[in-house]
Structure formats: C-alpha cells, structure tokens
Amino acid sequence: MPGLIIIVLVVLFGGTLAFLGDRVGMKVGKKRLSMFGLRPKYTSMIITVLTGFFIAGLTLVTLTLISEYARTAIFELHSIQERLTSTNRKARDLTVQVRQKQREYTGLGARYAKLRQELAQTENQLNKTQADLNSNKLLNKDLQSHNQVLAGKNQSLVSNNQGLVIQNDNLTQISNYLKQKNNDLNVERERLNHQIQSLANELISVHDRTKVIEEKPLLFNVGEILVARVVEPGVREDKIQANLINPLLQTANELALKQGARIPGKTDYALRIKPARITEICNQLVKLKSKAVLRVIVESNSVKDDPVNVTLEVFPDEIIFKSGEKIVETDLTARYSESEMRDRLLSLLVQAYNKAIAKGIITDEQNLRDVVSISEIVNVINIIKQNPESSFKAALVATRDIYRTGQFKVKIDVKNQQEGGAPKSQS
C-alpha cells in the first residue's frame, strides 16, 4: 500500500513539474529570450531539458526523503543482494547439514531399536538367571560352608608358611655356617695333603740320608716348627710376601744358621722352600676373613752343614678346644712312685700340647711351665697318695675356649673311679 501511494505522488508531482516546465518554456519562447548568445529556439530547448533534469532530480530527492524503501533501493541494493546471496549459500549449507542430521537420526533410530531388542533379550536372560539363582539357594549355602572351611585351611597354611620361612632362615644360617666350615676344611685338607706329600718324600729319602745323619748331628726333625706368628687379614695382595712371608722366613733362616745349617756355596742362607708353596700361601692369606697362624715347618730331617727343607702352613683362627673339653687323660694309682706319676702327668701335658700344635695353635711366647704349675702336679700326686686303694683318671681340661691365636690354658681334673662323682679340679 505505501508503494502505491508513493507512485501516485510521484506521478502527480512529476505532472505538476512538467506542466510548470512547459509554461516556463512557452513564456520563454514568446518572449524570445536568449541564453549564452543562442537562438531562442535552442534556449527554449535547454530550459526544457534542464526542467526535465530538475524534475527527475527533485523526484529522486523527494522519494529518498519521504520513503525508506526508496532510499534502500537506491543506496543499499548491492549490499542487500550480496547479503541475500550469502544468506542463500548458508541456507543451502544448513539444508545439507539438516539432511545429514536426518540421516544420522535415522541411523540412531535403527540402532536404538536394535539396542532395545538386545536389552529385552538381556532382561530375559537376567530373569532366567535370577530364577536359576533362586532355585540354587541350597547350593549357595553349601558353597558358603565350603568357603568357611577353605578359609580355616588357608589360615593354617599361612601359619605353616610362616614356620617354613623361619625354618628357611635357620637353614640359610646353617648353610652359611657349613660353607664356612667347608672352606676351613678345604684349607686344612690342602695343608694335610701337603704334609702327607712332604712325609712321603721324606720316607723316600730317609734311607739315603741315614748314613749322613749317623755321621753328622741332627739339627731339626721332620714336622718341627721353626717359627710361627699371628697374621691379620686385610693385607694388600702385593704386600703379603714382603710384609708377612719374607720376615717370617728370615727369622726361621737366622734360627737355622745359628744351629749350623747351610746351603752349599752360601753363607747367609740355610732354607729351601718351593716357590709354588709360597704362591699357594699368598693366595690363602688374601682370602683371610679373620686372624690366622702362619708357621714355618721342617719338611725333612736336617743335619749340620746341610740346608733345611721347609714349608709354610696357614691355620685360620678358630676354637680348637671348647671350655671344659677333655683334651687327653691317663690312669694313675698310688702303686706308682712319685717320680713315675710326675712323669706320667708331664707326658700327659706334652701330649696335650702336641695335640694343640697339630691343630695349629701358636707356639711362640709360651712354655710348658706356663700351662700347668709344679704345685698343681704335686697336689694331684698328694690326692692319689691319700687313697692308696683307689684308681684315678687324670685329665687335662680346657679352662676356657682355646683359640689358635690364644694362650693354651688347661687344668688337671682327677676323678676317683671307685667313688665316681664329679672330678676334683687342680687349677
């Protein structure tokens, strides 16, 4: 409706302006006016044209002022067309997306229907399972009772397992102890094998040396200990021979030289020892974990002006006699004379001392007089003499744990075999 009104107004306004322009043109033609020196005819035409321009311009201005639609059509038409094109493009894209969403919706609908069907099947299975469970209540009770029994057995197994763990720890400790003892026995076996070999060699050459021994004085007997010392662990491998073995051999050499032993052609050395044995002893000393006794032993009988064949022995420090252990014993009665009983007791002491030496005890700085005193021997003889009708057992007993590197401390225990009971100690 507004557009129709605008058209009517434009027609009326244009007609009015045309009428006015015609009137002006007629007046100009009648008066025969001239512009810019032109003929009246042309001047009338110019006025008419200008009047048309004025009518068109005034019409446009009027439309622009009175109508927003006209302003939009004149000044914003291109922008409106671009927006319309963009809007149409977006509408097409949205249409495509709507169609795609419709397809997805259709697929989801089909999937939903399938899931509904599967859910119905699952509900049927659950209902069936529930029915089975309801029918198996008695079986569940039996299972619960079995579970309780199994729980009790499981607790018993746990306690048994703890006991096995403790036993395993004990077995591990025993295994480690046996390994240590095995290592010590291996060392002892090597020493004994070497000693056996030395004795075998001595037996082979004893016949050949008999005449020489008869002609020359005997200096050292086979198995005699020339010198011994306590060595500490932790000495560097490259220092063992220089710091431990060589000084010990030098001391033994000085003792041999002082007794009259010699190596032909040499005046300052009298010992012979196999280099391989020195290497073996070095390897043993490297592995030491505690103190040990290192000894120089005579391998064969030695006479004056001859070399002394020696070897080395290593005894790891350990208990050789426990406290209260009976080392040796002998029978005594009052029928023996005092001198005979004293000789038997001294012989018993020598046997015990030799037994300790065989086990590797250190022999330096200790004398038999320091082991058992004369007064102790006299006391034992007096006890026996006071019971002339009885027989006695005299034993040497360790007063404490005796280590290879420690002192040899013993006491004499006397027991009356007729009376029995505890022995009498003389310490």
Task: Please tell me about this protein's structure.
The strands form 4 sheets. The protein has a 4-stranded mixed beta sheet with strand order 2-4-6-3, with helices on both faces. It has a 4-stranded antiparallel beta sheet with strand order 8-9-11-12, covered by helices on one side. The radius of gyration is 66 Å and the shape is elongated. The chain has 3 domains: 2-75, no CATH class; 179-317, no CATH class; 321-426. The termini are far apart. It contains 10 helices and 12 strands. The model has no long low-confidence stretch (mean pLDDT 80). It has helices at 2-31, 40-66, 68-75, 77-135, 137-215, 240-259, 275-286, 338-358, 368-371, 374-385; strands at residues 218-220, 225-231, 271-272, 292-298, 302-303, 308-316, 319-321, 326-333, 391-398, 402-403, 410-416, 424-426. A hairpin with a 7-residue loop joins strand 11 and strand 12 (424-426). By secondary structure, it is α+β, with helices and mostly antiparallel strands. Helix 1 (2-31) runs antiparallel to helix 2.
**Mean pLDDT reading:** 80
**Segments where pLDDT lies below 50 for 5+ residues?**
none
Total beta strand runs: 12
| Alpha-beta classification | alpha+beta
| Alpha carbon gap, first and last residue | 149 Å
What string, H for helix and E for strand, traces the elements in order? Answer: HHHHHEEHEHEEEEEHHHEEEE
Strand order of the largest sheet: 2-4-6-3
Query: What is the number of helical segments per DSSP (H or I, 4+ residues)?
Result: 10
Round the Cα radius of gyration to an integer and report it. 66 Å
Strand content: 5-15%
Q: Can you give the helix content as a percent range?
A: 55-70%
